[in-house]
Every structure is written in C-alpha cells, then in structure tokens.
Amino acid sequence: MKIIVERDYELMSRTVANLLLGEMFRNSRVNLAITAGSTPVKMYQYLVNAVKGRPYFENVHYYNFDEIPIKGTTGFGVTMSALNDLYFMPAEIRSENIHVLDETNYRHQDERIAADGGLDAILLGIGEDGHYCGNLPGTTKFEDGTTCVHRDAVPGMAETLAAEVGGDPDRAPEFYVTMGPKSVMQSKRIILFASGPKKAETIRKALFDPVTNDHPSSILRMHPSLTVVLDEAAAEGIKDEFHVKQSM
C-alpha cells in the first residue's frame, strides 16, 4: 500500500489525474473503471484537458462499476449520466470505448471484463460509512462478484436510493447493480482517493482497523497494488498511525 498526502483538494486531484494518465500511456489496450460523485470533479477537469483531441488515447476503454436505474426512464442511470457529464462528453470519448454496466447485463460483467483482458486500474472514492462502488455495509460479502442489491437489503436503503434520484420516491428503483468486492479486487491496480475532514475517520478505519464487512473498504488494503491519495484534511486521522510522505 502506498499513501500519498497532498496539501489540498486541487493538488490531490492533479495527482490522481496523473496516476490515471500513467496507466493510459501504453501502446496496448488499457481498461479503466472510474467513479462518479463529487470528489473527482476537479480531477476530471484535469483529465479532460489532457485527453480531449488526442487520438493516442484511443487505446483506453472505460467501465462504470455500478449503476442506479432511474424508474420511468429508458436512458442511462445515475452513474453513467454523471460520468457522461463529468468526463465522457467533455473529453469526447468514443462510444465504442465506453462499456456500460446496467441492470440488463450485470450477470455477465465479470466475464466480459475478463474477456477484455481484465481491469488495469480502478478508481474508487469512499463513503463516510466505508462503502465503495455500491458495496454499502450489509449489502455484499467479500466473496461477491458483480451483483444486484435490492432496496430491502438493509434498513434505509429505499431512502438512500430515492436521494440518489433527486429525492423523488416515484423515480427510485427497487435495486441497483454493482461490482462486488471480488470483482474490484481482481483489478491489477486500485487507486482510492478522498478529500475533506468528513473522510478522515473512514480512511483511518479502512487502512488501520480490522478487515470487516462492517467497513467494506477495509478489504482494499489486502490488494497487492493499492495507492491511496488524500488531502491533508482526509489524512488527519492517520497521521499518528503511519508515516506518510507529504508533498510541499
């Protein structure tokens, strides 16, 4: 495990973008699974500027690792809609390089990725409850591959799904799909990043507390190639537990 602490959100975002670009600069096919959400907003701005209009990145293929369908619609769900807005459309990524995971094909996701050569890297955020992808506490086990999680899996899930679709319970789905822990751990590299004081405690638990399904992201430190990128605020909880090199 390598831990990188940057001074602030902007520097952290630039570092993560550079790590992804390092994966992308290959002559062979590169398979990346990337995250939506608020944490990567600045990172995607850097990445768009680096990738847009450069045909030598056409070897890079992208996979979303979870999806929340929006009830009553036929288009993309929550995750793909966000990735389109944040990255795919601004960077003008070709549609043939985007491999959508949704409720119609999740049963074959792991086999599809394996047939494509496996994931070279997966970029993950982390929730305050320790979740990554759609692996919330109590919803999946470490041995699970890509799976479907129903809204009655844990208390409060119906409300969580409603919040994800703008707070309208009529648009909330009965389930979502996600790459499970087993699927994520099969990636050749994992990049985990977090920003802000609200993430400090969950980062400490993920990296230094016991490995447990109660804090799903704790399994990630068992990966042989895990890179964690934090800003100073998110690293506050680990500064006394692990010596990390801080950028100046």
From TrEMBL:
SUPFAM superfamilies: NagB/RpiA/CoA transferase-like (SSF100950). InterPro entries: Glc/Gal-6P_isomerase (IPR006148), GlcN6P_deaminase-like (IPR052960), NagB/RpiA_transferase-like (IPR037171). Residues 23-221 form the Glucosamine/galactosamine-6-phosphate isomerase domain. This is 6-phosphogluconolactonase. It comes from Listeria floridensis FSL S10-1187.
